Input
Amino acid sequence: MERRDARGRADPPSAERRFVRRCVTPLHVALVAPPWYPVPPHGYGGIELVVSLLDRELRRQGHHVSVLAAEGSPGAVVCAPRGWHQDLGAQQQGVREATYASRVLRAIASLGTVDVVHDHAAAATLVTLAAGTSTPVVHTVHGPLLSAERAFYSELGGRVGLVAISESQRNSAPNLNWIGRVFNAVDVDDLEVCARSEKEPYLLCLARICEDKGQHIAIEVARRAGVRLVLAGKIEATAAGNRYFDRAVAPHIDGLHVVHVPNAFGSEKRRLLSRATALLAPLQWDEPFGLATVEAMASGTPAIASRRGAAPELIDPGVTGFLVADVEEMVTAVRESHRIDPLRCAEVTRKRFNAAAMATGYLSLYERVARLSSAVA
Output
């Protein structure tokens, strides 16, 4: 029988409990978030959400955690003032990242003994940490690995242990210094699950609006299926993102058949995720993870995604969603989505992508790099 604590939450699996007991010596982990949004985020901010969940779970398991992040992050060491997000995608982005890197390095030096630095920020911060601290550095690769990224990570050699967020991502550059793969988590305690009878007749596409996310495909699928579409997400803050929105998305937004919600968060986001008929992820790129896909499934809403990137690792076909090859298959999947049991969908997803599972994966890597560092010293 599943054991639950006083708040009704399920205890971690037995193997996980054994690992937590084995790590009897608390670690001091410095978590470095990107400089753009607070931890946790107030709306958009997928990486910041992951950092927040990891911070919370590591503390729950008795470890000492220092979070280095943007202003507005409760309890964090602030290394970036509020408002820098306005420079994301702008000419000043590189200078902001370099400034942040310098502040992070100085802040870590003031923290005393740190067992592991776990970086989630950009290249400037990572290369500064790799060169400027003797503390073991672990870095989660949150983005795609194109030519420039592969060259950068290759130059770091063995100074940084890289963590993939999917096997698809790791396999795209197998020669890098990977030390493991840990799936991202979603905040299952902050999500709702609706019974099938509570579902509403609309499709949801929850993502920043850009060509890679394929909102134009979602619009076409919804039109063919005859179902209302809610596009939830900010327009990507680039010239290409604005052109895409103006050309391929904006002409279809009429407030009736296609609705745009620029920044869904809190209760509105929970409702959109749990009550949707299905979530559409018509990916036009090899996405290395897909937080919105997992959030939807953890809310009991089937995800219908292009069969590429990490999607096949996240979706259990027929149980938590469907994998498709084109528009026709996506339309068919929309019509079959009523066959997915919302409660079963949520149960399966929550077991795989909760904060405890993510923290357990990272703790095993922290322990390994800290042990190796001690042996070298």
